[in-house]
Write a structure and sequence with these properties.
The chain folds into 2 domains: 176 residues, Histidine kinase-like ATPase, C-terminal domain (Heat Shock Protein 90), CATH 3.30.565.10; 63 residues. It is built from 6 helices and 7 strands, in the order H-H-E-H-E-E-H-E-E-H-H-E-E. Helix content is 53%, strand content 17%. It is α+β, with helices and mostly antiparallel strands. Strand 6 and strand 7 form a beta hairpin. It has a 5-stranded mixed sheet, sandwiched between helices. A two-stranded antiparallel sheet has the order 1-3.
Length: 262
């Protein structure tokens, strides 16, 4: 008999599968477009690498100028420029990660602790935006062979994405369970406004965003990191009903071969 957390995860999966069957007919027509976007992502990553080097030189020069006149009238301007360079560098780093993900560094990881530690890290900032974060973990979810840093990034991306969708506050719930097949599923659900059908088809595309300040890379990177583990990311949403992202990870805890470290 399933425990309450597993039951809730399975209920959400059933809803998702019903919608997935309705979307399967559209997949073939999108494959060619996805290949084009992948090539674009690789090109963008190459450009990002070339741009980062001169930016580092600019950053160093500005720091020297600021330190030479720490109390001068231009000091706040230097700080502002350094802050903007840091922001640009962060965007470039996202481009690099989307086009050329670093190799996996897998090790046995306590998934329960990883989920709880990630939630504890994010709760203070989320509360300031009136967003409550809850974590529900099914019994018996033991260690799994994965890259903890990359799965943490996946969780942070999905939780942050959910929180940003709820402009007036709300609740984000992270549930984790093991399917009868042994596969691990992590569901990140929000009670936000949901995603329109036209946008739902594009949310994993690089550079697609509905946010004014977004880069459109967060979900693309999330999918890439999960696929590196041999897993997949799916989404179930409709306007007015909130959104749930499902992260499926293969179970390597019992000695099965891990995903290739590419």
């Amino acid at each position: 008999m399933l425990d309450p957390v597993a039951t809730e995860v399975h209920r959400g999966l059933r809803r998702f599968l019903e919608r997935q069957r309705q979307r399967e007919a559209e997949v073939a027509t999108r494959l060619a477009h996805v290949d084009q976007l992948a090539s674009l992502g690789q090109l963008a990553a190459g450009l990002a690498h070339e741009i980062k080097n001169p930016l580092a030189g600019l950053h160093g020069a500005l720091e020297v100028l600021r330190d030479e006149a720490p109390e001068g009238p231009s000091a706040p301007l230097y700080d502002e420029m350094l802050g903007e360079l840091k922001r640009v560098n962060g965007i470039l780093q996202q481009l690099l990660e989307s086009g050329r993900p670093a190799p996996l560094r897998t090790q046995p990881t306590d998934l329960r602790k990883l989920l709880e530690d990630t939630a504890d890290l994010m709760k203070p900032s989320l509360r300031r935006h009136d967003v409550e974060l809850e974590v529900e973990i099914a019994e018996g979810l033991s260690k799994a062979l994965l890259d903890a840093a990359k799965i943490r990034q996946v969780l942070v991306n999905l939780i942050q994405n959910a929180a940003e969708a709820m402009r007036d506050g709300g609740r984000v719930t992270v549930r984790a369970s093991r399917l009868p097949s042994g596969e691990i599923v992590i569901a990140v659900a929000d009670d936000g406004p949901g995603i329109a059908a036209g946008e739902l088809e594009r949310i994993f595309q690089p550079f697609f965003t509905t946010k004014f300040s977004g880069t459109g890379l967060g979900l693309a990177i999330t999918r890439s990191l999960v696929e590196q583990h041999g897993g997949r990311v799916e989404v179930d949403s409709e306007p007015g009903r909130g959104t749930t992202f499902f992260v499926f990870l293969p179970d390597h805890s019992a000695g099965a071969p891990a995903a290739a470290e590419t």
